[in-house]
Amino acid sequence: MKIKLKRCLLRISGEDAKNFLQGQFTNDITKIKPNEIQVNAYCQHQGKIMSLLWVFMKHNSFFISFPEDLKELVLSKLRMFKLMSQVEIEDLSKMVHQYGLIKEDNLDSYKINDTLSLLTSSELITDSHDISQWELACIKECLPEIYLSISEKHIPQALNLDINQFGVSFTKGCYPGQEVVARMHYLGKPKRRLFRFQTKFKVSIGDSLNTNDSKSMKSSGQVIRVVNEGHVFHFLGVFEINNINDGIYLNNDENKSVKLVHE
Fold first, then answer.
1. 239-249 per-position pLDDT tens digit
2. 148-260 adopts what CATH topology?
3. Contacts of 24 by beta carbon, 8 Å cutoff, 6+ apart
């Protein structure tokens, strides 16, 4: 099953490309495997995620895939840090189509996990399926995403990127926000984690998640990824660990309850 994705695609090449990217992203790009996606966070100086990135290699170049509404933000940051490095940054978004694959083997695709993979093609595939099927599959796999409306809101631990070092390496060198992310890992415990929910009420990215037992001055959590399937909204949300089993509702409306999915 192939689903056309609305994502930006950058190619990073040049003799300094590896060292340049290693100093920008949270994961260890020297460990990228052939035909596999490595998930990375691109953080600002306070450790908040500007964008989640899918990084892969092809023909000795690095490719970076992320939601298209973050293109200007990501490009501006990469260009700002490039300085005098021997690095070329190319935007291939209009030349290369990106397709999400669900439980489909393809020799030319890049594996995200055992269920999901990414296929890039210079040709448009006309039998693409609806994007909602991809979103539902990603939510079931608890694969987070960051869009412009929720950029710079959450640290990597809140999106579970530190678990098994899925999207964060704690043995690589420095990157923007590294001190904050490392301090949380070695000296503290995250107060919020990523969970899967569902509800019969309409949900949008950026909506707040609340509970009466929270001591936070802000909302207890936030919706970061959502899809509607029939009369049910499935979504991923960042939420306070200590209150995850309490009554949770949307946007300070106690009549709009949400259910934690334990699968």
1. 999 999 999 99
2. Elongation Factor Tu (Ef-tu); domain 3 (2.40.30)
3. 42, 77, 78, 81, 175, 176
